[in-house]
Recover the amino acids of this structure.
């Protein structure tokens, strides 16, 4: 009579490896879900092309610790606010990061500006008239389009 094995792991080593792989994949997927889950965003979606431009300039100002550039961003944000191109949440996000930089907390401001930019990823695509393709441009005189 053959002894009966009570250890199921001995019966199918490939099954054990598969479950281990599934477990590792699950553990790796959790941080990605936390990062990309919409509820985990710290900053609001920007609603205008101008807002996106100011956000990029804000990151550049913080990254280079450039107070002059920061001043231009602040002026741009103020202008957009007057023109009604920023929501209250967008204004708050810009103000918070600008405040960090003005207080010389450049490292924290840079990280916050980077997170602000990251939170814009996947927020939609530009409208057809908001993007620029080389093939959309009209040829100049004396230089026919080929």
């Amino acid at each position: 009579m053959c002894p009966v094995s009570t250890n199921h792991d001995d019966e199918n080593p490939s099954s054990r490896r598969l479950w281990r792989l599934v477990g590792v994949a699950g553990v790796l997927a959790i941080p990605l879900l936390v990062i990309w889950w919409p509820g985990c965003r710290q900053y609001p979606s920007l609603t205008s092309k101008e807002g996106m431009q100011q956000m990029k300039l804000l990151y550049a100002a913080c990254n280079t610790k450039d107070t002059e550039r920061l001043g231009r961003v602040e002026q741009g944000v103020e202008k957009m606010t007057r023109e009604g191109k920023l929501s209250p949440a967008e204004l708050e996000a810009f103000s918070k990061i600008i405040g960090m930089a003005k207080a010389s907390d450049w490292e924290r401001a840079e990280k916050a500006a980077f997170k602000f930019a990251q939170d814009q990823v996947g927020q939609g695509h530009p409208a057809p008239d908001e993007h620029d393709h080389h093939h959309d441009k009209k040829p100049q005189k004396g230089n026919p389009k080929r």
In short: The radius of gyration is 26 Å. The chain has six helices and no strands.
